[in-house]
Amino acid sequence: MATIHAEMTATIWKLTVAEGDRVENGETIAVLESMKMEIPVEATSAGTVRFRVAEGADVAEGAVIAEIDGS
User: Fold this and answer.
1) Burial degree of 41 (CB within 10 A; 0-12, 13-18, 19+)
2) 24-67 pLDDT, tens digit each
3) CA dihedral in degrees (18, 50, 16, 56; nearest 10)?
4) Which of 9, 20, 64, 66 is deepest in the core (most CB within 10 A)?
5) Confidence of residue 70 (pLDDT cuts 50, 70, 90)
6) Any idea what DSSP says for residue 69?
7) Distance between CA atoms of 57 and 32, rounded to whole angstroms?
């Protein structure tokens, strides 16, 4: 299972896929917003995504955003 972490302190501006969707490696799954910059968050492997955050949530650097189950 791959774990996706926030690269910086930010707000979850948008989730671009739905909970339970199958995603491919490199696919954008969310967009962070920090200081008016939009930072895409990409899947690090293919599989089913489970989010650990909701749109609009504030996250700290290193916080878990999602997990991807490749099975």
Assistant:
1) buried
2) 999 999 999 999 999 999 999 999 999 999 999 999 999 999 99
3) 100
4) 66
5) confident
6) E
7) 10
Rounded CA Rg of the chain: 11
Residue that has been written with the tokens 């969310």 in this structure: 30
The rounded distance, in Å, linking the Cα atoms of 10 and 19 is: 20
What's the rounded Cα separation, in Å, for the pair 43 and 1? 11
For residues 24 and 49, the answer to whether their CB atoms sit within 8 Å is no
Distance (Å, whole) CA 28 – CA 16: 7
